[in-house]
């Protein structure tokens, strides 16, 4: 019972942090950085 409550609390915190990051526009920043790294790896960027 206690383990389930802890797991649900961690899951809820994770969803809240995901929502806050998305609302702050951090998802776009991460995608831009990932695209830059990928382009550099194949020698285009």
Features:
mainly alpha, elongated, 45 residues
Structure description:
- This protein is mainly α and 45 residues long.
- The protein has one domain (2-41).
- The chain has two helices and no strands.
- The protein has helices at 2-23, 26-41.
- It is elongated and about 55 Å long.
- The model has no long low-confidence stretch (mean pLDDT 92).
Write the layout of secondary structure elements.
Layout: H1 2-23, H2 26-41
Span of the ends, CA to CA: 52 Å
Strand content: under 5%
What's the β-strand tally? 0
- When the domains are counted, the total is 1
* Helix segment tally: 2
- What is the quaternary state of this protein? single chain
Rg on CA atoms, Å: 17 Å
Mean pLDDT: 92
Overall SS class: mainly alpha
Helix content: over 70%
Write down the overall geometry: elongated
Short recap of the structure:
The chain is built from two helices and no strands. It is mainly α. It has one domain.
């Amino acid at each position: 019972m206690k383990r389930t409550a802890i797991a649900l609390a961690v899951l809820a915190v994770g969803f809240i942090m995901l929502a806050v990051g998305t609302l702050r526009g951090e998802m776009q920043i991460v995608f831009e950085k990932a695209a830059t790294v990928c382009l550099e790896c194949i020698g285009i960027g």
